[in-house]
Amino acid sequence: MSEKIFLKALQGEVLSKPPIWLMRQAGRYLSEYREVRADAGGFLNLCYTPELAAEVTLQPIRRFGFDASILFADILVVPDALGQDVRFETGEGPRLKPIASFEDFKALDQSKVDEKYNSISETVRLIRAGLPKEVTLIGFCGAPWTVATYMVAGQGTVNQAPARALAYSNPDLFQAIIDLLVESSVDYLSRQVEAGAEVLQIFDSWAGSLPQDQFERWVLQPTIKMVARLREKYPHIPIIGFPRGAGPLYEVYVKTVGVQAVSVDETMPLAWAKENLQPHVTVQGNLDALALIEGGEVLERSVAHILETLCDGPFVFNLGHGIQPHTPVAHVEKLIELVRA
Length: 341
Prior knowledge:
The protein is of the alpha/beta class. 53% of the residues lie in helices and 13% in strands. It has a 7-stranded parallel β-sheet with strand order 1-4-5-6-7-8-9. It starts with a helix and ends with a helix.
């Protein structure tokens, strides 16, 4: 068994004080992050400059002492490396050249995959070298379905309708996109492990937008393939799945995909998660990011409910999604105090 408490929790150990980290813990709510971001010359430049990406990854560890650190990158590194035109517009989020036909798909220039993935691997090496010995390093990628929604729509969308429509109207094209993402994401995560990542998390942020039959085809089947291939190569590396918004389909995900842990979003009823998920995997979650912003009694009550419900089983404290940019730093400090008390 590892001496790192985050790894202990992922190995199924029940701890008196659960490990804690926060999704998007390196980000705009920290003044030191904003300073680095301003000097980086663009978001993707920050992601692909190992010294800067490692610095912002380590900033929340220095400030808060979280039990795990997650690589600073973005889920759209994969389509960018595959040759799709990806850019980040200030105040508008990502913009990509949409894939609407097989001609668009075949036009992807994959000649820079090695260059771009290698820069991320160098970031992982730098982070690992700079982390305290008790802190675990998490590598990650977006799940094929979620990344495909951006590749097809060319941007984030409210209900992922462009990707859902393409999956119905041209399933062969959509399957080709998914298959490419499975292959490239396994390669990407493998390089992170080789560089020093100790845990992997697969973010399926838009899993909850699909009906069950489409969920099984575009969420479950690609993730099963990814996890099986990673497990074959790295049987010692725990994998966390995050099919955000999947509701009762979380149970199917846990029982079929093969992950060691599942991150649950803020809408998940905790008693249900305790009964249906925690007997099979470590549960991670699920504080509402808005409760963290509110602080005070709301935060204390929410944290107490999560701890009382889930601490009898293998558990990692986290948010139900990423931390928001306008979160007060003092509230993060209070959160850590509450969890560790």
